[in-house]
Design a protein that fits this description.
This protein is an alpha+beta fold. The chain is built from six helices and four strands. It has helices at about 30-35, 75, 110-120, 125-135, 140-145, 155-165, and strands at about 50-55, 60, 80-85, 90-95. The strands form two sheets. It has a two-stranded antiparallel ribbon. It has a two-stranded antiparallel ribbon with strand order 3-4. A hairpin with a 2-residue loop joins β1 and β2 (about 60). α5 packs across α6. The radius of gyration is 20 Å and the shape is elongated.
Length: about 180
């Protein structure tokens, strides 16, 4: 039984989600301490990718829901929308593309868009698994995904993209 059916914290027994601004973690706990996890990040830059999104070129926190019932009906009924619990215990929504796979992506800012693409391509695989297939060290893949510069970066990028079966291209303006 999860919030809102559960009215008390599983650990301390205090009221769960009494006010709209009160957090509910994993649908069971009232605080990170009760849930046995570290306090969540207070700045979007420090938060894990699953808790943030890019909006107007800035990293911002995703909306937090306390239960599936709090997600608006129009979003719950949309087949391209799913919800998940992040490592911080919050409930977020995510959107998937329906139909054809994404075939083209234009990069506005290489330092932001390339790491995002690499993380999405990796999906549920671990860095170790991808690095093994690509023939690179896992730390090099981590550096690429986090935007850290390294002298071997381009060679590593080429190997990783080959493992993902993704080709890199350039779009040039015509008429110059």
């Amino acid at each position: 039984m999860l919030f809102p059916e559960r009215q008390r914290c599983k650990k301390c027994g205090r009221g769960l989600g009494l006010r709209p601004q009160d957090p509910v973690l994993f649908g069971l706990y009232c605080t990170p301490r009760c849930a046995g996890i570290a306090n969540p990040a207070t700045r979007p830059e420090d938060a894990p990718r699953e808790c943030t999104t890019m909006r107007d070129g800035r990293k911002v926190f995703k909306r937090i829901y306390r239960s599936v019932g709090e997600i608006p009906d129009r979003l719950r009924e949309d087949p391209s929308t799913s919800w998940y619990t992040c490592a911080s215990g919050h409930l977020h929504i995510g959107h998937t593309r329906m139909g054809e796979r994404e075939k083209f992506r234009m990069f506005e800012d290489l330092a932001v868009d390339l790491p995002d693409l690499l993380v999405k391509l990796r999906g549920q695989a671990t860095r170790k698994q991808v690095a093994e297939v690509a023939g690179v060290r896992p730390i090099r893949l981590k550096e690429l995904e986090e935007g850290v510069e390294h002298p071997e970066g381009l060679k590593t990028l080429g190997k990783v993209l080959k493992a993902y079966r993704v080709r890199l291209g350039v779009a040039m303006q015509t008429g110059r």
